Amino acid sequence: MKTSNNESGSILLAVLFMILVAMAVVSAAHLATSGQSILTSRSADIDALSTTGEGLLDYAFGKWKVAMDNDGLQNATATNALVSGSNRPAVPARMQVVDLSINPVDANGDISTEAVKTYDYKMSFVYTYRASVTLRSTGVGGERKVTLRRSLVYTSVPPTRGMFFSEGNFELYKPATMVIGGDVHTNADAHISTGTSSSNLTFLANSKVTYVGSYDNAAPAGATNWSSSGTNYPPTYAAGLSSQVKKVPEISGIGLGTASEYDTTDSNPNNDGNRELIEPPVAGHEDPTSIAASRIYNNAGLLISVSGPINSSMPLTLSNGAYTGGNISIKAQNGTSLSAAQAATIRSAVTNANVTQVQTWVPKLVQVSEQVWVPNWVQVSQQVWVSRGYYTGSGKKRHWVDTSRWETQTSMVDQGSYQTQTTTVDQGQYVPTNQYVQKTIYDKRELQNIPITDLNVGTITPALNTLNGFNGIVYMDDSGPSDQAAIRVTNGGVLPTDGLTIATEGGLYVKGDYNTGTTTNPNSVPSNNNPSPNASTTVSGYTTKSAALVADAIMVLSNNWSDSNSSSGVSSRAASNTTLNTALISGYLSSVSGGSNGRSGYSGGMNNFPRFLETWSGDSMTFSGAFVSLYQSKRFTGAWDTGDIYVPPTRYWYFDTLLLTRVLPGIPATGGFVRGQLSRL
Amino acid sequence: MRPHLWSSQVTILAAGLLALAGPTHEIAAQNAQRPEIAFTVHRLNEPNVEGPDVERTYFLAAGKRIVFGQPKDCHFTFNDAGFLILPTGLDGEIQVSRSTFTPESDLAENALKYRESAAKGTPKGATQLEVQQPVMNPYPYNGWKSLGFVWTYALSGRPMTRTVNYINLEVGVQVVVTTLAAKNDAEAVNKIARQFMSGWWVMGG
Description:
- By secondary structure, chain A is of the alpha/beta class.
- In chain A, 16% of the residues lie in helices and 37% in strands.
- Chain A contains 8 helices and 41 strands.
- In chain A, the strands form 8 sheets. Chain A has a 17-stranded mixed β-sheet that branches. In chain A, strands 20, 29, 30, 32, 34, 36 and 38 form a 7-stranded mixed β-sheet that branches.
- In chain A, helix 6 runs antiparallel to helix 7.
- The longest helix of chain A is centred in the N-terminal third of the chain and has 67 residues.
- Chain A is extended.
- The N terminus of chain A is likely disordered.
- By secondary structure, chain B is of the alpha+beta class.
- Chain B has a single domain, classed as 3-Layer(aba) Sandwich (Protein Transport Mog1p, Chain A).
- In chain B, strands 1, 5, 6, 7, 8, 9, 10, 11 and 12 form a 9-stranded antiparallel β-sheet that branches.
- About 14% of the residues of chain B have low confidence.
- The chains are: A alpha/beta, B alpha+beta.
- At the A-B interface, strand 28 of A face strand 3, helix 4 and strand 13 of B.
């Protein structure tokens, strides 16, 4: 059969079309496979760049943290030097670091040449830096580039931003009924339990418990070797344990750059830990800059030093910047100006002398004659008849043979005699005299008479309000011979307008209401008149001032305290309702196994962080503020016990939320370093 | 009465330099006129108002329970007449006993009488005997008034220090704390004595 040409052409075209389609399919398949390969290679490269970039940002964080810790705030030049030049780490050969930088940023996130202080929501002020890295590599399909950023945040948290901040263990072991409303943080372990039922110890829903070490409901050391007392119950967490208890990183150091300076192994007494906060620097030794900047002694606007019983009749003379006289020295510093009249007013607020009858021995040496036996041992010989003999024979022939005879025996005989001897004898007597001495009170916990200096806040406040340039910080010091000298703050109902921090290296007693708005009528304070969870802690119309009391140990004496009863039995030391509105920053004692002197070794727990010395049965101690425990007590180290020392109050203790926004004069912050979120551009 | 031992009985009595003796005739004669002290030790488990419960040790004086803590690192013995404390590792001892006087005998006014009484315990054969000036309130605890005397002497060539301290307790009785120690250990022994006494308190006081 003959085909036509047209028909043959159509077939050819169809075949060609099919071939083209097949080629297109093959080509498309090839192209698709090739693109996937490129994409896969690119993705792997970018992953590698990202991983390396994150490592570089971690490196940058580490370098920045160490520099901040050691040297304080860093500007942009300093931070960039940390990650440039020889400080920049190597990366894999096929990668290039286009940029690696650390820069301070401001509140808007814009880069700044200097560190910028900003404020975090409610809690603290922060310094934010931005670490940025750009990495590049080349591969199939061209160049890959990755840019990563991470915020580096130094959060400076005043330790008074929670109910209780503890450098040591946080312990509550079977306290009297307690309700805690406020955050608790410990840089160590938390041992929290109650004795009879969980409802005896409650953490309100707004209370977070954060710890660095461990958390349990076990008995602390020292509490275990006393008699068994049943089950330890966990406390009640109003919002549940899982939402209120959390393990967190350490918040260390008091003041930026201090932690790395601490060294208890060297001979420098000026770098031994957080307690430097309350210590004057020891002359003749280096005072590291960051620690010096945190010392309250250095930062105070007013230094008051006593060296013995104060005699207000002596003139005050200005010498080396201090008004001195009558065993007291008053010095203004850090921009505070002080006139002679103001110094005299301040001295009148500081008292510590008593006229006391003292028995003084007046010797009277007399010669007395007495008969004294003077021995004279001599050896004498004498004839002594010695009876002896023996039997011989047996039966009826047995008989005694007597061999007795005189023998010469030698013996010692005292042939002394009484002789008259003249000796000097003190036949003096005690003569009572009135002497000007420093006042003491007996502290039943310390088992000592404590030399005490009273600071009458009611008297000093008007003077402080008129001091030009005064920064609100008073540092007091008793340089007398006793290691256990103390300051007592009295009449402290009304504080200076701009607040007041009182600090001392020794003990601090606070007597009666503090920062409540009245110095005359404790019962006008609702929390005293009708103690209850919602009672106001100030008189109507008074706003609490920024207040902190800082010492080696702080003892709370009630409005009813009387010095004359201080050494009497605990039942004679009856307390009365008392209210304090202040931060208490003080030392702690660690619980130890095996106590002494009849005491257990248990620390007493957070509930005894402010120490009590009275019978508070039926009385309340209302507290609004914050407890901060930064260092071990060094001078007031009497072990905890109840016994003859105290009967606990009903404790109405609250965190003062005003402290979330207040900066207390002279109280440096604790610091924490945080890596912010990673972002990829 | 046979002494009670709270720790290892080994060597305690042998090592003692002071005899933990019963009351002297003089003491016995005055017993009828003053509140009784019995150093026999009692124990009491006390539920605590907060914190761990406690075991108290006490003796009776003037009808009150005087709580004390057993001194650490010491051998402690007692009988009705007093306590004997032998600090471990120190050459010395501490005796707490009744006084031959009463608190009504003013310490300052009668210092010479107290000294005369205290001197009677000086061992025979002591040489180089020296007595220091009286010390007022060597035990300044709980508002107590006290009067102390210190003798130094040599006994068999060994320098010794002896202190006798009369203490008026707040419950209206007077006790005597006597320490005897080799001179080198005297300060440490006296420190233990003061620490021991400082821990006394009146239960329910």
